[in-house]
Amino acid sequence: MGHGSSAHVTEILARSRALGFLGPTTLDLQIEHARGFAAALAAQGVDSPASVIDLGSGGGLPGLVLSEIWPEARIILMDGSVRRCEFLSEVIEEFGLSEHVSVLAGRAEDLGHREDLRGAIDVVVARSFGPPAVTAECGAPFLVEGGALVVSEPPEGRAERWPAEGVATLGLGPAASVVEGSHFVVLRQAALCPERYPRRVGVPAKRPIF
Ligand SMILES: C[S@@+](CC[C@H](N)C(=O)[O-])C[C@H]1O[C@@H](n2cnc3c(N)ncnc32)[C@H](O)[C@@H]1O
Question: Given the CA of residue 84, which atom of ligand 1 is nearest to it?
Fold first, then answer.
């Protein structure tokens, strides 16, 4: 197979792609890129999180690939698109992954206020979710103190995209840039995110905090 993912995950992603839920690059490259999230975290000293949210998982990336790297973790694939979530729920059931992978349909701005999820998750990963301020505001509320937000960055990504004072509003520490094949930033949740975040659906994008 070459890229180190199981036939199951490769098959699911191929279906996902056929439905138009994945970007245009080859599956192998997308799987490789998804594995980079785990490598970026490991580079920051986090090896086996117990709970992970894939923020805006879409067709299942990077969450499905990470579910293989972290088989003991509870992985939640979260997305606002009903169609994508229905697809993900079906394949997770079909391929017998439901013991540790689940799907949560809804907007992150709403789900971030759910009592059972708020301040409860070790790692939030995000690939192509939105601009830094939106990703940070939607991701931070889920994280436990000491948790980590890992976001893939464009190749020309620079640390200024994640200003320290801006992310501190959400209880996040400064962004560490990590290159593991691709570019990533890792931010630690230094203190729990203040209760007022995330703001109402659409507001993080309309009035970004930084
Ligand atoms: C560009 S896609 C990326 C999907 C996947 N992570 C990938 O890299 O292939 C962004 C996804 O985030 C979801 N999304 C965007 N904003 C969201 C929000 N506020 N709450 C929940 N899902 C959201 C969209 O429905 C979409 O599936």
Answer: 27
Ligand 1, from 52, 55, 66, 129: best to mutate by most atoms within 8 Å of Cβ? 129
Our answer on whether the CB atom of 84 is closer than 6 Å to any ligand 1 atom is yes
CA angle 163, 156, 209 (to 5 degrees): 25
pLDDT of residue 2: 42
Three-state SS for 203?
Answer: helix
pLDDT digits (tens, 9 = 90+) for 14-34: 999 999 999 989 999 999 999
State in Å: Cα 191 to ligand 1 middle. Answer: 26
Question: Residue 146: phi, psi to the nearest 5?
Answer: 90, -10
Are 164 and 174 a contacting pair, CB within 8 Å?
yes
Strands (E) located in 97-205:
101-105, 121-126, 143-153, 176-180, 182-188
Q: What is the pLDDT of residues 113-160, one digit of tens each?
A: 999 999 999 999 999 999 999 999 999 999 999 999 999 999 887 778
Ligand 1 touching residue 65 (CB < 6 A): no
* Burial class of residue 184, CB neighbours in 10 A (0-12, 13-18, 19+): buried
- Domains of the chain and any CATH numbers: 7-204 (3.40.50.150)
pLDDT recorded at residue 1: 39
For helices 7-18 and 82-94, the axis angle rounded to 10 degrees is 150
